[in-house]
Amino acid sequence: MSTISSTAGGPMPGPRRSSTGGWTKSMVLTTLLLALTLEAVALGAIMISIALPSILEEFPTDQGGWLASGYILAGAVAAPLLGKCADLYGKKRILMTAMAISGVGTVICVLAPTFGVLIVGRVFQGVILATMSLTYSLLRDIFPPKPAAFAASLTITGMGVFSLITPIIVGILLAQFGWRGMFMFDVVWTFAMLFLVAVFVPESKLRKKTRPDVIGAFFLSFGVAGMLIYVSLGRGYGWGSLFALSFLIGGAALFTAALLRSRRVEEPIINVSLFARRSILSAALLAGFGYAMAATVAQLIPLLALTLRVDGETYGLGLTPVQYAQIATPMSFVSALTGITLGWLVSRGRSPRAFLVTGVLLYGVAAVLLATFNDTQVLVTMGALVTGLATGMLQSSLPNVVMQASPAGEQASVAGTVQLVQSGLGAVAPVVMFTMMAPYIGPSSTGGIVYGIEGIQTWLYGAAIATTVIAILAVTVLRPRPGEVQTLEQQAATAAAKTKPEPELVGDPD
Question: What is the DSSP secondary structure assignment for residue 358, as one 8-state letter?
Fold first, then answer.
């Protein structure tokens, strides 16, 4: 049975607070360090999208989608598992553990002699994705309610400064040191932030006795991986071949075992019962489809920009990685500015859920723009700017949507479960996308491969339809029931009322 130690329902002792409940230097420093820590997540995603053509030149393969899917799948499984560990051992401690594992994985990427080893390194590197839910769970514990909402939006969005120069840094590293130098930069960044977090960021005092479901994590991760391998290899071996079907059947069996196990154990890797609450189910689906769009569009925008026109025929700007920053930097600026603005609005009572739904819809708009108008830099930039707007809305609103739907003491577990769906769909999407695009592959003039515009358009138009449907469902049949959503101030007041002692009777009861 789970129990909670310390005081649930209000912020735990953490950074020194002002007497008025406003911001202090310690709180600003904590927010800054956690924001910079999460830039490793953004860097891990951005670097592979820009460097993919260079990697495929060294390792020619049509399985490039696994560099994104392996990374995201690891985060999908690690998020709920480490979320449980965070409830038990402390959120800062588990946050640092995730950073250390990711750093080791990035070292493997630097040294990878084959494409297979590179995928293994990306899997370990992907554990950094769990820091997203761990970060805003930690902030909820150690900050007062209003600063916690704003700080969560800032950290998930990133302070904006680093994200603006990330494409330039990645481009320069690719030009000067190749894709391995890019990974080496990430190694230095991750371990530097690990040291700073260890020294300056306070730990939460909130603990919950729980038992991480390692067996469920094994079933879930290998189940999803098996089904993805079938999708990835089915075209080459034949969708009905015994070899390909063995992965599908085995993966489906393990995935089913994970779902059945969730009904029998007290602390499952994915708590299916949480999805009985519309607030959590709708948040998970919106986050999942939004993240799937982010993971795939992030691959396609560089593809449209870096491909030579002679190879793409009807598309391809022929930009270098450094020149690509002319598109990526404005996109990052819009994303960061949107995140900071929405964080400020949410901290003043605006509904984060409305911004989340709008962000998912904007991904659909961006997909249509990129599929239809992509033959000039201005048009590709226009689609990228809408993508940046959608990303800023998604990343800044999601933490607050999850926090408002989470009971006190369970925020890490709920956040981890939501991120499991978010990252799970994000892991599936790149493999499905590259599989749909594979029939349109042709040789490039540089010795690699090039994807035809027909495959790119098929994915983008289909994705736009899917995000529109999910957004409509979120505001109709999946609209949260009354009482399922509470602001952090309301949650704190409810918890305080529950713990308020009964008044003593005074005088003769007779």
Answer: H
470-496: pLDDT as tens digits:
999 999 988 887 766 655 555 555 555
For 148-201, how does the pLDDT look when each residue is reduced to its tens digit (9 = 90+)? 777 876 776 654 556 677 778 888 888 888 899 989 999 999 999 999 999 998
* One-character DSSP codes across 161-205: HHHHHHHHHHHHHHHHHHHHHHHHHHHHHHHHHHHHHHHHSPPP-
Q: In terms of C-beta density within 10 A (0-12 exposed, 13-18 middle, 19 or more buried), how is residue 382 classed?
A: middle
* Displacement of CA 459 from its chain's centroid (Å): 21
Sign of CA dihedral 373, 166, 132, 345: negative
Report phi then psi at 294, rounded to 5. -60, -40
* pTM for the full predicted model: 0.74
Rounded CA-CA distance 61/47 in Å is 18
Contact 465, 289 (CB under 8 A): no
- Say if strands 449-451 and 207-208 run parallel, antiparallel, or are unpaired: unpaired
Backbone angles phi, psi at 138, to 5 degrees: -65, -45
How far apart are the C-alpha atoms of 154 and 34, rounded to whole Å? 9
**CA dihedral sign of residues 206, 207, 208, 214:** positive
